[in-house]
Amino acid sequence: MPVKTPRVGFVSLGCPKALVDSERILTQLRLRGYDIAPDYSSADVVVVNTCGFIDSAIDESLQAIGEALDANGKVIVTGCLGANPQRIVEQHPQVLGITGPHATDQVLALIHEHLPRPHEPYLDLVPAQGIRLTPRHYAYLKISEGCNNRCSFCIIPQLRGDLVSRPIGEVMAEAERLVASGVRELLVISQDTSAYGVDLRYATGTHRGVEYETRFVDLARALGTLGVWVRMHYVYPYPHVDKVLPLMAEGRVLPYLDIPFQHASPTVLKRMKRPAHAENTLQRIHSWRQQVPGLVLRSTFIVGFPGETDAEFQELLVWLDEAQLDRVGCFKYSPVEGATANGVGEPVPDEVMQQRYEAFMERASLISAARLAGKVGQTLQVLIDEVQGDKATARTAGDAPEIDGVVHISGARGLRAGEFAQVRITSADTYDLHAVPAA
Ligand code: SF4
Known about the structure:
Elements: E1 7-12, H1 16-31, E2 35-37, E3 45-50, H2 55-71, E4 75-79, H3 85-91, E5 97-98, H4 104-114, E6 138-142, E7 144-145, H5 156-160, E8 164-165, H6 168-180, E9 185-189, E10 204-207, E11 210-213, H7 216-223, E12 229-232, H8 245-249, E13 256-258, H9 266-272, H10 281-291, E14 296-303, H11 310-323, E15 327-332, H12 350-373, E16 379-388, E17 391-395, E18 407-410, E19 420-428, E20 433-437
Parallel strand pairs: 1-2, 1-3, 3-4, 4-5, 6-9, 9-12, 13-14, 14-15, 18-20
Antiparallel strand pairs: 7-8, 10-11, 16-17, 16-19, 17-18, 19-20
Bound molecules: iron/sulfur cluster.
């Protein structure tokens, strides 16, 4: 009688960095001969990778653990919330084990303990690029763990520790494997991409015989040789970021920068303890756009930060009007347990926070609509994400997956997911574009 292959169920919550942790665990499980179960009922044990960033994420994680326990009963918890095991055990004392984030080996040890390891399989059961949770044509490339900053609203350094960069040779080897397996877009992620390599004192490494330093600009240069879209996320506006603009102008990396500004009022930024808060960002943005006219800027902001006055909020609105950011996300401040920000000023009342949120989003949506309207009539390269009948969904260089808008293409027969195409933009709405294949 054949031996039943042990099956592990997996729930992955949180940000792209947590997603990469999930992919690593899944890859290792397949390497060790485990199957991945598509649902709770067919799993022998369930791993829940949690998020602990803000209260709503903590609630969602605790709820997911509860659901897995109800449906399956055997649950291992990992991820950011796992750095605070007490919080989990108080509500779910029956979990089998808990680890913090970025703990592949500990998760595997717990799985081996509760679900004995099967016979050693052949390594070629796993594709060279490992197991990924994203579609085949794009992948997140995590270049470092942890963060040396101490933003007052954030507990990620407490959860994930100080910055630990991956050497550039290792990152490039992974990038190359991904491209060889069909990836057409690499999304570079970390907590602070522009600080990449500072902990390694910018140690050198080689890729295809060329020497590079483990630093942000060299990484962009090296990735730019792979012939795929390279998108930079979580970039702080340190002065050296300017050096990546020529690579964008040359088409080596996408003309796209995801910079989490969080606010624009210098006094709020100071209370937030934001990195690079003293930089004159408006001047920088202006100069970047002169160098790379099609540059798309995305950012996130927090409204209702403790002590935020009306005047400080107005400063943010004026700044936004000037900066004309293409893509903007906004959060209402949420007091994360353990964050020093909770004590830096009077809490902003909920109704004021809501009004500010609405005012901010209204302003941001007008800017987005106007900037997208400017693309109507242009012919742009897009990466096709999905095709259904004669409709397709795609993204331009200015759209990151999941967080930005999309291009809706009609008359799309013949287009294929994962391939590039040229389309003509026919109309625009607040966040999305509409197009037809270019003649
Ligand atoms: S840069 Fe600030 S917000 Fe981002 S992870 Fe580091 S401490 Fe947190």
